[in-house]
């Protein structure tokens, strides 16, 4: 793994040297903009509108537009000093329960490995957090951006989740058309709870696949081979049934093993439900394609 940051975790007077690594990777298939006339990739050009010339990176700084057309400029070292990034510290402020944090706050996950020194302090923090069941709320600056973070244990590794500040979370009151008072039919509620219980299962992330990515890789292979890409027909809606019938059909579809059959039900905007049947896919199967190098 590539080290993205080096520093230390501090709690109280204890400093734990760590190296930071990205815990996730983007598996999106990269596409480039192409000039269709000559099949040439388009380039991003940093051009100054006043000088009418391309600008090199060393001639670029960051600026804040405080009035239309008027800017204050900041160099990289100035921003690092303001953000506190220069001290390379993940300062734990409090220890809390993980369940106290709503998932809406979470941004990105990093693994924190032991630094070149201080393995004993790393193991002490890891095991003490594991035994107490607590996570640390910390402040950190990465790439000139200050962020809150949650330090927690994943297996035998410390991990850091960057999290939003409270004023970065939009209030729910801004969501339009939320009901002032929720009222539901008791029979529908009981059937909905039965359906949720029948569909409940332990979380097994390996069973979830990126189907779009798979179809796109297959289409890329067909196009590379000079074949026409065929798409499966869109799902066709059939009979319209009411909400109780939809719940009952859903319960029937889960049967004994809790897995859905071919029939599906989808809610319409008017709270009615359409029953949908899966068409047979006509796309020919292709060998698994390698991801294109970008």
Characterization of the model:
The protein is extended and about 65 Å long. It has helices at residues 76-83, 119-132, 186-199, 211-224, 243-254; strands spanning 5-11, 14-22, 34-35, 40-41, 47-48, 53-54, 62-67, 70-74, 89-96, 106-114, 135-142, 145-154, 157-163, 236-241, 264-267, 273-277. The strands form five sheets. It has a seven-stranded mixed beta barrel. The longest helix has 14 residues, at 119-132. It has 294 residues and is α+β, with helices and mostly antiparallel strands. The protein has five helices and 16 strands.
* Biggest sheet features: 7 strands, mixed, barrel
> Spans with pLDDT under 50 lasting ≥5 residues?
256-294
Q: What's the mean pLDDT score?
A: 81
Report the span from N to C terminus. Answer: 20 Å
Radius of gyration: 27 Å
DSSP strand tally:
16
Which percent bin holds the helix content? Answer: 10-25%
* Shape estimate: extended
State the gist of this model.
Helices cover 21% and strands 31% of the residues.
What topology emerges from the helices and strands here?
Elements: E1 5-11, E2 14-22, E3 34-35, E4 40-41, E5 47-48, E6 53-54, E7 62-67, E8 70-74, H1 76-83, E9 89-96, E10 106-114, H2 119-132, E11 135-142, E12 145-154, E13 157-163, H3 186-199, H4 211-224, E14 236-241, H5 243-254, E15 264-267, E16 273-277
Parallel strand pairs: 1-9
Antiparallel strand pairs: 1-2, 2-10, 3-4, 5-6, 7-8, 9-11, 10-13, 11-12, 12-13, 14-16, 15-16
Give structural attributes.
294 residues; alpha+beta; seven-stranded mixed β-barrel; three-stranded antiparallel sheet; 16 strands; 21% helix; extended; disordered C terminus
């Amino acid at each position: 793994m590539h080290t993205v940051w080096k520093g230390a975790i501090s709690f109280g007077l204890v400093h734990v040297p760590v190296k930071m690594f990205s815990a996730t990777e983007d598996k999106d298939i990269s596409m480039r903009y192409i000039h269709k006339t000559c099949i040439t990739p388009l380039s991003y050009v940093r051009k100054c509108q006043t000088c009418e010339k391309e600008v090199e990176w060393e001639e670029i700084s960051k600026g804040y537009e405080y009035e239309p057309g008027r800017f204050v400029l900041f160099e990289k070292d100035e921003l690092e000093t303001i953000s506190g990034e220069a001290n390379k510290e993940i300062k734990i402020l409090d220890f809390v329960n993980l369940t106290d944090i709503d998932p809406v706050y979470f941004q990105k996950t990093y693994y924190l490995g032991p630094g070149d020194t201080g393995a004993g302090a790393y193991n002490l923090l890891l095991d003490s957090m594991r035994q107490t069941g607590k996570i640390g709320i910390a402040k950190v600056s990465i790439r000139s951006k200050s962020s809150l973070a949650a330090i927690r244990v994943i297996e035998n590794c410390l991990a850091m989740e960057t999290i939003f500040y409270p004023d970065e979370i939009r209030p729910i009151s801004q969501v339009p058309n939320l009901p002032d008072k929720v009222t539901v039919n008791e029979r529908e509620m009981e059937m909905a709870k039965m359906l949720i219980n029948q569909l409940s299962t332990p979380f097994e992330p390996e069973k979830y696949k990126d189907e779009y990515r798979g179809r796109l890789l297959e289409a890329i292979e067909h196009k590379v081979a000079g074949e026409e890409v065929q798409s499966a027909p869109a799902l066709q809606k059939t009979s319209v049934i009411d909400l109780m019938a939809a719940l009952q059909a859903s319960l029937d579809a889960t049967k004994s093993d809790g897995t859905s059959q071919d029939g599906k039900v989808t809610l319409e905007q008017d709270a009615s439900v359409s029953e949908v049947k899966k068409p047979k896919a006509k796309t020919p199967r292709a060998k698994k394609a390698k991801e294109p190098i970008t």
